Amino acid sequence: MTEHRHFIIHKPFGYMSQFVCDLKWKKVLGELYDFPEGTMPIGRLDEHSEGLLLLTTDGMMSEIMRGKDKEKEYYAQIDGLIDDIALEKLRTGVEIGIRGVKYTTLPCKVELLKDDPGFPPRTKKLRDDRHGPTCWISITLNEGKNRQVRKMTAAVGFPTLRLFRVRVGSVVLGDLKAGEVREVAGFVDIEKSELNNSANF
């Protein structure tokens, strides 16, 4: 029986969620760690997004962790000070475009964060203070359309400036620093399965 391996990483800004890219100047995951052959990312974060990314050599584990029962929580720094009306629109669903087709997002959890989550400054400067105030929100989804969070906040008039994934199911980013990789025994408790290891922090 194959001994599969599992990893969690804090994907930094500017890295692709893949191991191979035809564009040689792009940064890929293999530059962060000596991953074993057959390692695959579970889901993706776009090049400009940061935070929690799960990787595994086990295709079955990948399918389980991409299931709609696994919540994905994001912290988004948005342009402007969001109001209650926009927050409620995000919660109930907004219309976005997916490959040229209109799509209404499913109801989700959205909260205004009272405090800055304290992430270190981005390697590429975001912008200067002359552009006005920003705030942070938490968005928790059970779906994962392409660039969904960015499209959702833009749809209510508050574009996302910086985006972190902080949780997938019960696996959390915790104290992982940008670029850090941690090998774990498994990801989450999976009911009625022998894959019952967890990686909670």
User: Judging from the principal axes of the Cα atoms, what is the shape?
Assistant: globular
- The value of Rg in angstroms is 17 Å
CATH fold-level name of the largest domain = Alpha-Beta Plaits
Largest sheet: 9 strands, mixed
CATH superfamily membership of the largest domain, which one? Answer: Alpha-L RNA-binding motif
Q: What is the number of beta strands?
A: 11
| Spatial separation of the terminal alpha carbons | 29 Å
Pick out the low-confidence regions: 190-201
Mean residue pLDDT: 88
In percent, how much strand structure appears in the residues? 25-35%
Word description of this protein:
- A hairpin with a 2-residue loop joins strand 9 and strand 10 (171-172).
- The chain is globular.
- The longest helix has 9 residues, at 84-92.
- The chain has helices at residues 59-65, 84-92, 148-155; strands at residues 6-11, 40-42, 50-56, 72-79, 95-98, 101-104, 109-112, 134-141, 160-168, 171-172, 181-184.
- The protein is 12% helix and 29% strand.
- Strands 1, 2, 3, 4, 7, 8, 9, 10 and 11 form a 9-stranded mixed sheet that branches. The chain has a two-stranded antiparallel sheet with strand order 5-6.
- The protein folds into 2 domains: 6-67 and 170-184, 2-Layer Sandwich (Alpha-Beta Plaits), CATH 3.30.70; 72-167, Alpha-Beta Plaits.
- By secondary structure, it is an alpha+beta fold.
- It contains 3 helices and 11 strands; from the N terminus they run E-E-E-H-E-H-E-E-E-E-H-E-E-E.
Topology of this structure?
Layout lengths: L5 E6 L28 E3 L7 E7 L2 H7 L6 E8 L4 H9 L2 E4 L2 E4 L4 E4 L21 E8 L6 H8 L4 E9 L2 E2 L8 E4 L17
Parallel strand pairs: 3-9
Antiparallel strand pairs: 1-3, 1-11, 2-3, 4-8, 4-9, 5-6, 7-8, 9-10
